[in-house]
Amino acid sequence: MKRVFKGIVTSNKMQKTIVVKIDRIKVHPLYKKRYKFSRKYKVHDPKNEAKIGQTVVFAECRPLSKDKKWKLMEVVK
Questions:
Q1: 37-72 burial code (b ≥16 CB/10 A, e <16)
Q2: Residues 6+ positions from 31 with CB-CB distance below 8 Å
């Protein structure tokens, strides 16, 4: 089953690649305090259609390079 995520584009400086940041909230196992953490993913964008600040949906795919294992599905307006 392929994983699908939604995040915000933080960089589109590379050719056919965008960097997408996802913010999540976790709960500390001992202190039960909620805290926010984020992770960045390199996503394959073959048409260079995503711009900085847009929300995008991307899914898992076969490895395209050392870091790229995600493919752009759609740009959410």
A1: eeeebbbbbeeeebeeebebebeeeeeeeeebebbb
A2: none
Q: What distances in angstroms separate CA 17 from CA 32, 41, 49, 67, 74, one per listed residue?
A: 37, 10, 10, 10, 14
DSSP for residue 40: E
R_g of the chain computed on alpha carbons: 14
Distance, in Å, from the CA atom of 64 to the CA atom of 10, rounded to the nearest integer, reads: 20
Render pLDDT for 11-69 as a digit per residue (tens, 0 to 9): 999 999 999 999 999 999 999 999 999 999 999 999 999 999 999 999 999 999 999 99
The pTM of the full predicted model, rounded to 2 decimals, is: 0.89
Q: Which CATH superfamily is domain 4-76 in?
A: Nucleic acid-binding proteins (2.40.50.140)
